[in-house]
Amino acid sequence: MLEYPCLTPDPNLAAAIYLPYYAGIDGLKYLFGPEVNSSFRHGLDLFHYLAHVDSPSIWGKNLGHDHFLVMARPAWDFSQPLSNDPPIFGTSFLELPEFYNVTALTFEARAYPWQEQGIPYPTSFHPPNLGFFESWLNRVRKSRRSTLMLFAGGGGISANPNVRRSIRLECENVTGMNPNGTGYSKFCDFVDCSNGICEHDPIKFMKPMLQSTFCLQPPGDTPTRRSTFDGILAGCIPVFFEEISAKKQYGWHLPEEEYEDFSVFIPKEDVVFKGVRILDVLMNIPRGEIRRKREKVLEMMGRVMYRKHGSSLGLRSKKDAFDIAIEGTLQRIKSRTQEIIASHRLE
């Protein structure tokens, strides 16, 4: 934010006000720490500071409609109903009436978002300059895709029917199949990232992604995955199984009307209960269409990566995930504040 070119120290001149509040870190004591039974209080200290201590007139001008913040966890972790007794996992930050008007940028929004907007997960790729980014782009474009499909993740070991289990079983079943004549050396690759073993070792999954045509992105504990953005940065065409995994999340960065151009959608119910084989669906996609989808993925790459802090002017001339998030936030706040002004005139 401090590198953003249009900052002003005067809140009266500002179109929007950024709250440098680390909601995910401050929420840890309510999620896992000593105040787990007081999770309904998460955010009340912040509200008191904004509305009564810092500069009450700034908050009172639009009652928070012109404020925004980043919440580095899924919105579900901040959406525990205030009435829950005993509390379930999560805090009630987004359920507090005091913050209904604030725009929250989260890695995963709820299915009925009013306050929040989904933004891409940060990956391990933060280029410092335009040359570095273009060099990576060329590497991705020229990478030999010897594997048809890849799943990098955990889960799927339960006996209960679920899409991750179906993917793992199908991957095991097709491993012994002969791919001769298909253009691939193998049909399926599985990178086991259980227990967080891939979190700080991106080579474990990025190298296989660079070698794969399709990256399977099934939902897990929640619908979205960081792997979606790792895959895009590797030029790997995403295969989704729920619309809430991306299409209904990241409209600012990945427009809904373009999903058919860069991804594949297979309903998870078809895979789990109707016997649809992912292999058959993907093998039936013409090579020309695959090339077009991959080119679109490469086109999307700049929109979902966060360039490095202090990056070159050349790279900053291209919009990255940060720029698009701020642009969307400003437009959203402008629309809401204009509605407030119009309603006051009617009164």
UniProtKB/TrEMBL annotation:
This is Exostosin GT47 domain-containing protein. InterPro entries: Exostosin, Exostosin_GT47. It is found in: Golgi apparatus membrane. Residues 6-279 form the Exostosin GT47 domain. It comes from the Eukaryota. It comes from Rehmannia glutinosa. Belongs to the glycosyltransferase 47 family. Keywords: Glycosyltransferase, Golgi apparatus, Signal-anchor, Transferase, Transmembrane. Pfam families: Exostosin_GT47. Its main location: Golgi.
